[in-house]
Amino acid sequence: MLNNIPNADFSAFGAPVQKLIELNTATFTKAFELQKATAEKQDAKAQADFTALSAIKDVEALTSFLTVKSEEAKANLETLKTEAQASVENSKAYFAEVQAILTTSK
């Protein structure tokens, strides 16, 4: 079966593959680091919220706490929108780089 493969120069095959490996490694490492940082931030925030909620002794303090949390939720939604747009742009850039690597390797 392998005898039927025509002679070909496979030496140029390694460079684009190596570039793709490096691009994927950098891209996934960055994504994992961002996810880890976000998870750690959310964990710290949840712990702080629980501590603050545990310290509430009256209705006024609860109302104040809930008002602050409502405002934080609005701000978090805006941040999420911004991060989602950045993610879309990063994805476009990634696929453009992949396309460039594949195009130059032809």
Which SSEs are present, and which pair or pack?
Elements: H1 14-54, H2 59-104
Helix pairs in contact: 1-2
Describe this structure in words.
With 106 residues, the protein is mostly helical. It has two helices and no strands. Helix 1 runs antiparallel to helix 2. The mean pLDDT is 90.
Structural class: mainly alpha
Distance between the first and last residues' Cα: 25 Å
Write down how many β-strands occur, each being a DSSP E stretch of 2 or more residues.
0
Order of helices and strands: HH
Tally of contiguous helical segments = 2
**Average of per-residue pLDDT values:** 90
Helicity level? over 70%
What's the multimeric state? single chain
Could you give a quick summary of the protein structure above?
The protein is an all-alpha fold and 106 residues long.
Q: Which key terms come to mind for this protein?
A:
single chain; 106 residues; rod-shaped
